[in-house]
Specification:
With about 110 residues, the chain is mostly helical. The chain starts with a helix and ends in a 23-residue tail after the last helix.
Length: about 110
């Protein structure tokens, strides 16, 4: 998964600060638990990560040059991938099949 420059800088900042990392791990897990699927989770987290970037860019030199208008969607998807358990796949109506039976009559 490729992150844009702003996402990578924010990820580097989060990883370098244990308190921030712990906060975001718990945040990702709680948002994922509250949403029915990963798409909605990524949307919600992307908005929260962008708001966080705006706030931190004011006081963290490492983040002051990052464009606060860029998407944080890829970073949100990456954090979901590494910090949550995969969700079970939904079965589609056509996914059911019949197993071969030795006692079948033709």
């Amino acid at each position: 998964m490729a992150l844009n420059q702003g996402e990578q800088q924010l990820l580097d900042y989060i990883r370098a600060n244990p308190e921030e990392k712990s906060y975001w791990e718990q945040k990702v897990r709680s948002v994922a638990a509250a949403q029915p699927d990963d798409y909605l989770t990524a949307e919600a987290l992307g908005r929260e990560l962008r708001a966080y970037l705006v706030e931190r860019a004011r006081v963290v030199r490492q983040l002051e040059d990052v464009s606060t208008g860029m998407s944080m969607r890829n970073l949100a998807e990456y954090l979901i991938l590494i910090w949550t358990e995969p969700r079970p796949k939904k079965k589609k109506a056509g996914d059911q099949f019949t197993l071969w039976r030795d006692d079948a009559q033709f």
